[in-house]
Amino acid sequence: MMTHSWPSLCFTSGAILAGSILLFGRSSEKTDENSPVKFTARTELVLIPAIVTDKSGDHITGLKQEDFTVLENGAEQKIGTFEEIRSEPHQFVRPADANEFSNFVEGAPSTSRITVIVLDFINTPFMAQADARKELLKYLTQSVDVGEPTALYTLTRTGIQVVHDFTTDPRVLVAALHEVKGDTYQMVDSDETVEAITGTASPDGSSGAPSKSSSSSKGAGNAAVQSEAARLKTMLEDSALNFKSFEQRLAITYTLDGMQQVAQALAGFRGRKSLIWASGGFPFNVSDNSMHLAPAGRDTLSDVLPLYEHTWQLLNDAQISLYPVDVKGLETVTVASASIRNPGKHYGQHAMWKQLDTEATLETFAAMTGGRAYYNSNDLVKGFRDAVKDSSQYYMLGYYLDQSKTKPGWRKLTVKVKREHTQVRARNGFFLTNATTDPESSRHNDISSALESPLDYTSLALVERWGKIDAAKDPSQKRVFYQLHLSPDAGVVNEADNNHVLLDVVALAYTREGKRVGEPVGQKVDVHLNAAKLAVIQNQGLAFVDALNMIPGEYTVRFVVRDEFTGRTGSVAAPLKVE
Fold first, then answer.
1. At what angle do helices 126-142 and 170-177 cross, to 10 degrees?
2. Residue 91: its pLDDT value, please?
3. Is the predicted pLDDT of residue 437 greater than 50, yes or no?
4. What is the separation of C-alpha 437 from the centre of its chain, rounded to a whole number of angstroms?
5. Which of 217, 295, 396, 539 is the most exposed place for a label (fewest CB within 10 A)?
6. Half-sphere CA count of 216, side-chain side, radius 13 A
7. pLDDT confidence of residue 468
């Protein structure tokens, strides 16, 4: 059965799509804390990249499966999969056909490694942004080997922006980085902003309090004026804190959404990936025990928790190790800047604790994914270099979840090696979340994110080809045919549910200037396959054929396919010229 799932402005009728599921040969490849997690019919495999080094930091090779122990919440797990991986730089190759567009690369081996660098301008002071670019330029010109696949993105208030896609030539990245401009707008300001507005360096009133009157002869009139001034001051403080809380919430949302987009873009690449997050810090703190977001002042952030947990689920599923690098470098935070008129006696202590919170959060985030944090240092190049080195050799361990334990929440992981004088670094846990609590919200968010992101999502490998262009019923439009293909190993058939295929197929066109053309349009694929069709699809793949009605012009059309059983999403952008 085929039904429209989005408003139809450009697509042809659903009846055309209803007959267009083809067999196509191609050889490619809100959380409720109290309710149990509903597993899909597929077995849940937890993969853990583990780096084992000696005390000098050199990788240890030749370890066997029996040398490792994996614990989940303190209970030993049976290791089901094991592999020692020595990765190599690998140049990515896109399909050579000029009329073919895909979200994956041809022939990328499981031993390839990739590095993504994100310059976070949302959470970084403007002056520190310049230092970050300078250190990154130093790294690209001095430390990156030719052939090392690296991509460079920025995070701004408009979202993730691609400075340059994966390249193995650092000179290309250097040229692209010279074109990057900073963002003078700092979304999450320090407490100096509150002080500038209210005259107090701390919301608890520890400094900047109104001075006592030097003349008591003013009497009751002065008391009334002072009382009114105090009320006004309280209103200003409250307004400033509310504004700061609002901006912090926006920064949290933008930051997590940016991480999700990078995770979705790397999910289809095999092996461990290094994500270097060059920033001035994260706009939130994390509890060491539950790994939940700590309250931000008067804001509990409870409604942000599903976004936060889903972010870590995507990062872990994509085997991404996070390397947060504090680009502010070595700081003396206890000394107030010249902009603080009256820092007060508690300013230094307050600033020191805030810096310690920032460093602790960087450490926690890195440990959650098996990466490393770099801060309080003017040698940022070391952080960039170590992130690449770590992925050069590691062990991939896997075990199957006990499906009788369905309580959602944080699962603590510990990896040990039965050898002396070794150090092990692996992600220290994962969130088990119940995405089925609000499936419609998850579906809408995943599709909207894939349509709007400049990155291709790769959990489902897609290939798009443009077909013939005919006249449409409307003489001002053309009918543009296309084929959209999923590989034989896409894993979109739920055999436990009578060979059920349940997919969303959505498209959205943009002008050359990046402006939307209409609204997202598409259909839902909801079919049960008989045994014969199942066998053919498993061997040859699945394809959709349909047409778009477009007026003449130049466009980029982004196609999205989402598997409703697993939430895996694939997207691909295809340029189109209609004459």
1. 160
2. 67
3. no
4. 22
5. 217
6. 0
7. 93
